[in-house]
Amino acid sequence: MYILTLFPGMFPPVFNTSIIKRAQEQDLVRIRTVDIRGFAKDAHKTVDDYPYGGGPGMVLKPEPVYEAVDWIKQELGREPFVVLLTPQGRRFSAGLARQLAQKPDLVLIAGHYEGFDERIRCLAHMEVSVGDYVLTGGELAAMVVLDASIRFVPGVLGDKESALQDSFSDGLLEGPQYTRPAEFRGMKVPEILLAGRHEDISRWRRKEAIRRTLKRRPDLLETACLTFEDRCLLEQVIDEEKASEARGDNCGHHKTN
Ligand code: 6GU
Prior knowledge:
By secondary structure, the chain is an alpha/beta fold. It folds into two domains: 2-150, SPOUT methyltransferase, trefoil knot domain (Alpha/beta knot, 3-Layer(aba) Sandwich), CATH 3.40.1280.10; 167-255, tRNA(m1g37)methyltransferase, domain 2 (Trp Operon Repressor, Chain A, Orthogonal Bundle), CATH 1.10.1270. It contains nine helices and ten strands. Strand 5, helix 4 and strand 6 form a beta-alpha-beta unit. Bound molecules: 6-chloroguanine. 6-chloroguanine is lined by residues 85-87, 129-131, 133-135, 137-138, 141.
């Protein structure tokens, strides 16, 4: 995976830490940052210029970006899948992360400044945005895309951490988790988790995942993959929540927002 950027210095602290570091050490992924400025032709290493027609800010020039992508293609000897990071792109998601993780060669282009020359878009197979807000540059977005995608590369996470158990992988949020102590400042861990009946625990976890999704992201339930049993749990949760609302409780030890 290649990241084209004007600020390669932003990446090492992120990539040389934790899971991404381990994935590189195990040769499961190879990440290289490519400094766009290195492909500027003139003595001043110019990568941006004034917009034609006037207006504020600077625009990223096309030549160095094209040159950089050409150089990557030559090095690879194959056509990479090129992603342009822009707030105008397709909204990033777990599904897209999974798709990108399957690409053998990925190039992420992180623009900066007010914008980039429109002709840079022609280089990209896909434009991706990480959300409806504007960042000062595509670097943080590239880190988000890379981090979320790497988790779907086989072997990067252990079985226990598997991305397939995460929030969103089956369209649901994860339920609550606890560790010791069993009681902390009056807040108790649910009895069922302490009792050690594994079937009950699995069922409770699934039910609480459904409850959490219903309360926080009901929109996700419309597209989630729910089994018949899940739908029964959902019915139960809806009834329980109605009853709880009628009683006016604030659901256990968590403060409601
Ligand atoms: Cl990909 N880039 C920038 N600069 N801002 C963004 C974004 C990307 N996604 C959301 N905001």
